[in-house]
Known about the structure:
The protein is mainly α. Helix content is 66%, strand content 7%. The strands form two sheets. A two-stranded antiparallel ribbon has the order 1-4. A two-stranded antiparallel sheet has the order 2-3.
Amino acid sequence: MTSAERAPRAIGLPGALLVIAGGALVLVAYRFLDWYDTPARADAASKITFSELHGSAQQLSGAGAANAYFNWLAWLLLIALVLLGVAATMPIRPADALRVAGCVVGVVGVAATYFAVAQLHDAQVAAGGERHNAFYNSTWGLWLTFTGFAIGAIGALLGPRKAAG
């Protein structure tokens, strides 16, 4: 064992704060923000939330992964990011493995979010909806979800710091 391996470590507060901030952004996006703002029509709402995307994914055939994402996977990724990311900043033996796992969960959160909204859009097009891209008319909710998962991934990478002394 080298002296660097035996050096005491302290909680990586900057990393923990980034993970918590990223998780909070995602939570706010899931619960309170609109993900899309569409032109108002008589048969549709103009503001589309995470919850409404969940309902759309359940109704459309061909949106299997999007249905899983808006039903349970998004929540699982959020919880895993916060738990793994905060644990990765603790001065514990598996911190290095947790740093990698927390970062991977954050990146998977970004990718899964994109894949879910893209698949949902494709299913809507197949059902007769307008053809454009998955980001057309997107608003704060979608962008904060991407940002929150990315910030959480970065925070998890920071890990515990070497104690001064």
